[in-house]
Amino acid sequence: MNNYMAVVEYDGSGFCGFQVQPGNMRTVQGELLRVLEKVLSGKVKICYAGRTDAGVHATNQVISFKTGKELDLYRFKWSANSMLPDDIVLKEIKKTGPGFDARRSARQREYCYYVVNDSYQSVFLKKYSILITGTLRMDLMKEAAGYFTGVHDFSSFCSPSVVKRNTIRQIYDLSIEKGDRNLIIFRICANSFLYNMVRIMMGAILEAGRGERDPVSIKEALLSGEKGLGRKMVPAKGLFLNRVVY
Question: Is 11 among the residues known to form the active site?
Fold first, then answer.
């Protein structure tokens, strides 16, 4: 069997998440399977680096799949893209080693979250960012972000539905920078993430930036491990799976 790795970009606005779900819910994985099975004339199993939630986007999602066929990569990419919907594109495809798995082989995943801090929302950014009109203090947000870096139990900063025994994760980097058009870009890199973890972390950082939360309370919540101390979850539309490191 030949093993292939592909990089996929998608606008998550019209999807009920990445992973296939029961019923007729539209998912990114479902659209990819429909096209790949048509191009390859057979059933395909897709592995993926990150299971993005409904409304979350990706600039560099990574998938892998196996097939008995030796693919002409140029023709395969163009054939697949001609059949994929407008909100998904196959950016890159290459043959890889037999042991490569898009999820299990990943060492780091980076997400970006976009916030416009202004009196109005740009028509070119509104689908992919949230608007905060009040003052956001960068010093308080950076202090809050600093408490997340390192190895912690993120039980307080994931969905209450998470029942995994292991809620320990390592945040390698959490940076905050200002871009054009009063856009603030948050980059979060970790070994992996729990369900809703990034969006709840972002909610806490933005609360700190607005002066609604003492940044030190984040450290206290991480130490306690008590569910619900993250308090708020930001909307999905500002979140992107930006990079996967192997």
Answer: no
